[in-house]
Amino acid sequence: MRKSINHLAPVIELVSILFIAFGFLIISSIFPAFISSSDNSGSFFNYQNEIEETSTALFSIIVYEVFALGIIILILKYRGWKFSDFNLQFSFRLFLVGILLFYTDLLLNLLLEFFIHPIPPPSGTSGEYYPIRNEANWISIILIVIINSIYEESILIGYLFKRLEKIHPVFVVVISLTIRELYHTYQGWISLINITSMGLIFGFYYYKFRKLWPVIIAHGCHNLVVYSLSYFR
Questions:
Q1: Which of 66, 75, 141, 226 is least surrounded by CB atoms within 10 angstroms?
Q2: The whole model's pTM is what?
């Protein structure tokens, strides 16, 4: 098995890693949207029924991401990848850069919302940002903030940029952003503005500086704000 994995073509490795990491998440996010739009009860990117986040649901995601990450690490180890390939060196300075990156993301997000807000939402949509009510406990929230931030950025930024380093970085950012958008469709069409600003800033920052921890820290801050807002709404 190890020999077979070691001899995989790079494109097969890429597709396999992305499918393991995000295949199920994309399907589970998009499928309800098509059901909602096809039965005339709503429209794509918008649901009439509020989504309820529970501790059980968050723990399910945590287990899935830990398990998937374990498989991915094993595959990449067999393929000769090293820890240093992900540029995960940490320092307090990089932590502060991550905080600054978060506020940059927040500023861009606000600017995008300012310009898009006057545009009427698609027919049948409520225009709400998050059709989510958070009923989870804070243990599950903290765990999902930490694990999800490391999980997504290690693959969508660290892995993807290394694997596609011979491709123009703009295309890599677009690929990374597209995958982000696909598995966040369940949050509603307007909330995808947040994903757009995050994907663009994280992608171009990493291309310029090749430091992954600031991206992870910024993503963690973003997740913490989102879960806090949905918890107290």
A1: 66
A2: 0.87
pLDDT in tens, the chain (233 residues): 788 888 889 999 999 999 999 999 998 888 765 555 555 444 444 444 556 788 998 999 999 999 999 999 999 999 999 999 999 999 999 999 999 999 999 998 888 777 766 555 555 444 444 456 778 889 999 999 999 999 999 999 999 999 999 999 999 999 999 999 998 887 766 677 778 899 999 999 999 999 999 999 999 999 998 888 877 76
Give the whole-angstrom CA distance, residue 168 versus residue 111: 27
Instruction: Reduce the DSSP state of residue 43 to 3 states and report it.
Output: strand
Residue 48 half-sphere exposure toward CB, CA atoms < 13 A: 11
Which one, of 5, 18, 23, 14, lies nearest residue 74 by Cα? 5
With tokens 């998440």, the residue in question is 25
Domain boundaries, position 16:
2-119+126-232
Q: To the nearest 5 percent, what fractions of the chain are helix, strand and coil?
A: 70, 5, 25
Instruction: Give per-residue burial for 129-144: e unless 16+ CB within 10 Å, then b.
Output: bbbbebebeeebbebb
Structure token digits, residue 133: 């009510």
Q: How many domains does the chain have?
A: 1
Residue found by looking up tokens 């986040």 in the block: 53
